[in-house]
Write a structure and sequence with these properties.
By secondary structure, the protein is mostly helical. It is built from 20 helices and 11 strands. The strands form 5 sheets. Strands 3-4-7 form a 3-stranded antiparallel sheet. Helix 6 crosses helix 7, helix 12 packs across helix 13 and helix 15 packs across helix 16. The chain is elongated. The termini are far apart.
Amino acid sequence: MSEPVLGDLRPADVRVRFSPTPTGNLHLSDVRSALFNWAFARHYGGVLVLRIEDTDLAGSVRGGHHSVIDALRWLGIDWDEGPAVGGGNGPYRQSERLPIYAEAARTLREERAAYDCYCTPEEVEQRRAEGGSRAQGYDGFCRELGADRLAVWQAQGRNPVLRYRMPDEPVVFDDLVRGQVAVPPEDVPDYAILRANGDPLYALTNTLDDAMMGITHVIRGDDLLAATPRQIPLLRTLRQLGVGDGPPRYAHLPSVTRAVTEDERAPEPGSGLLEYVDRGFLPEGLLNYLALLGWRMGDRDVFTIDEMAAAFDVRQVGPEPAHFDLHRLEAVNSAHMRRISLPDMTERVIPFLADDGLVSEPLTPDQRRLLDAAMPWVAGRMSTLSEVVPMLGFLFVGETEFAPVDEIDDADRDVLRASYEALSSLGDWTTAGIERALQESSAPTEGDEAREAFGPVRVAVTGRRVSPPLFESLELLGRERSLGRLQAALG
């Protein structure tokens, strides 16, 4: 097919796809691929196809396609064709396309573009050891199999795999990220497209679906770069057989490695999306950071995915490995936390409090009152949504379950005793009244220093030395609960 300059592309010229294996938990590398395909399609007004590659039973999870859909919806990535949307090129789950693959394999065999191979891996290795085989891969022994040998193997009950017949010439293509890639024929031997039991392999299903669905650009991780020299000749063969328009343009995204300075809190770069959902990262922050793993939007580090799509040019993606840095992700996520409204953030933290057993869903009226009153104290201090649990959990935990995380030593007891005496006689249980009473109880300091002086009180009533503002916390916690916790701390 023709290869127009990217700037001249029209919507009809752009059909990309995201084709994950439904493992039950999308890897971050898959999320990045989905984002870059989405941004490319939206930039040019093209089509994003969601295709579920679930023929690999070992790698797929039953019902895992639902988790893919849920994950993309949580991220805010929409698609134009695929499961839950429909389209004219379905089915979009490969497990529902098995008759299509079987028919394509039959045609490739009949056209001698593929052949049955009866060799065992041990036989191929033996020929290689004897010097009669190429350095790597299959040696083409069955390309022109004689009738006598075929009869012997069939009598032995061997079931053949089906191999695609690679051309004896280099495969050359222009990668939009890496430039020209040239692979000599000896590095790309004939490869299997059907297992001996007739099940189709990725090399057939992925390639055939790209051809049948009219995919114009393939944007994927560089872990699949080695598959491209195999797929391009097959796509040309399919075009000769009337299927598709030939190879699409390819862009292989750089690999992602852990930053050298990374601490052990960070899962491996290939870890699943759910780990970061559970940590309380926003979809806006996570996508923003993943976009930075290989691409830059000028001198901006913080942006929305709509802003990314407006500026995205896949040719600006660098081929060098990108380093996953948890600290930078937290910083980007924190910037997006500052962007969302207080009511929005309040709603988003409720599931984290509920998962910890601190509140019900929906909230009770009293829980709603406490949360709405407390969120303004902590919203500006949070880098992730899950931080609401250690920050505000003390307001919702039952008194029998409350236990300070930090310790109170004997030196703290004088402060606790004086604070308890001052507060127990306080009639005006307000932030101002509480602050005045506590300062007068030990009163050598003012302002922030005074707040620091009451560290033992903070631990006694909130459980931690780092918490929301102390005087406001005491007011919201209430007289009875506050005094009860001070008394419990005194023993």
